[in-house]
Amino acid sequence: MADFYQNGTVTTLHNLTRRTYDELEDDLMKFAKKRPLGLILPSLYSELEGEALNQIVDKLVDVPFLSQIVIGLDRADKAQYQKAMTFFNRLPQHHRILWNDGPRLQALDKELSALGLAPKELGKGRNVWYCMGYVLASNKAESVALHDCDIVTYEKSLLARLLYPVANPQFNYEFGKGYYARIAEGKLNGRVSRLLVTPLIKALKRVVGYNEYLEYMDSFRYPLAGEFSFRRDVLNDLRIPSDWGLEIGVLSEMQRNYAHNRICQVDIADNYDHKHQDLSLHDSQAGLSKMSIDITKAFYRKLATQGNTFSTETFRTLKATYYRIALDYVETYHNDALMNGLTTDIHLEEKAVEMFAQNIVTAGCNFLDNPMETPFMPTWSRVVSAMPDVLERLKEAVEADNAEFG
Question: Does this UniProt record's set of keywords contain Transferase (predicted)?
Fold first, then answer.
């Protein structure tokens, strides 16, 4: 059973009584009458060939409170898009696939690129951005959840608990962030969150000093969770990065746009496991190494917008501060794991900390060397201002693909 402690500035909604899924479903069915509910699934075609997504779809078939499912499909040719249509056809809910590599959406993307408004990097961020645009265009859901497609421990209760804070008309939350434990095969996972993000925030507090943003970020129990939910209006003015800083960027945007009492985090699963990235100790452009650089730069960018000044000396100090804090966390998590009958590899944990420490400096050098870097995708409000019919055209392109190949 979870504790009921409220930490930091963001409300935590715990799983205190283990309410059954059926009870949650009954509530959500009532909520959905006033506030239609939707789901975004950003997917690679390769995930259709794995076991995780197949099991997720099997369980979504039996979810009655969803009015809409929007699937963003990346890295798919025509034949693969047609296979995806068949794959998702078992869903009884209204659903559409955004064929991001198809000629219609590529043509729209090219027009947006000419205006300097299209996402520049391929990846999950771009996929999510277009899915959010389609949610706005289709106007079928008022509250929407988003989760990954590689969750091997997926249960319907995860989705129900994720949607509940933004679906309940008695709540005022505009945004909910999921959290959970990361355990698999007797090991404690979640290395980037445990050994980079948490100690980095603690180190930034010491180096930068008291900062409301850092206090806010330190409130989240799993800041890198890819599962979150939001009310539809949030999508108009959300600027998110297109790199691995997506999750940190979304949290940062919510802090900029909304009061803390409109934001919550919610316990959505006792355990969660998905596809693991390689540590990539010797390749800063891949795996957890690139992820750590992008995440760290996301923090630097946000703090710079608040007037904080960084230099090479700052990053050296930050590295040293982080390193000492992170090593203490290696021991802390090792002890936590042992008491719960789990294991951590202290050698690999410390190797990860050494790499993260180096990447704190690498991210700092990249930040200083590229002052004009703008990895954020524009808000949909801005895009609509520049191209007033863009949402209608996005919807038409998706519907035309569906009609031609469905």
Answer: yes
